[in-house]
Amino acid sequence: MSIDTLLDEIEEIVAGGSSIPFASKVMVDKNELLELIREIRVKLPEELKQAEWIKEERQRILAEAQSDADTMVKEVQ
């Protein structure tokens, strides 16, 4: 399950929780929420690694494109 899916489940649990009268609070299953949080913690490092790789790859592509553009401008001049 992806982190987004797990967060969606948490939202559903909170939205479906029993409302406490005259308060903006709900009662939810503590163990169910804690299990989803544990799953997110396990998956989070992998998601962060992927995001870091994407960021680095983006920077590499942009630098390469800038270098190519500079070369083309020099050739045209």
Describe, in plain words, how this protein is organized in 3D.
It is built from 2 helices and 2 strands. The mean pLDDT is 93. Helix 1 crosses helix 2. It has a two-stranded antiparallel ribbon with strand order 1-2. With 77 residues, the protein is mainly alpha-helical. The longest helix has 47 residues.
Helices, by number, come to 2
Shape: elongated
Mean pLDDT: 93
Strand content: 5-15%
Q: H/E order of the elements?
A: HEEH
Structural class: mainly alpha
What are the segments in which pLDDT stays under 50 over at least 5 consecutive residues?
none
Gap between N and C termini, in Å?
Answer: 54 Å
* Percentage of residues assigned to helices: over 70%
What are the defining features of this structure?
2 helices, mainly alpha, 77 residues, elongated, two-stranded antiparallel sheet, 78% helix
Give the structure's gist in a few sentences.
With 77 residues, the chain is mainly alpha-helical. It contains two helices and two strands. The model has no long low-confidence stretch (mean pLDDT 93).
Give the topology, please:
Blueprint: H1 3-15, E1 18-19, E2 26-27, H2 30-76
Antiparallel strand pairs: 1-2
Helix pairs in contact: 1-2
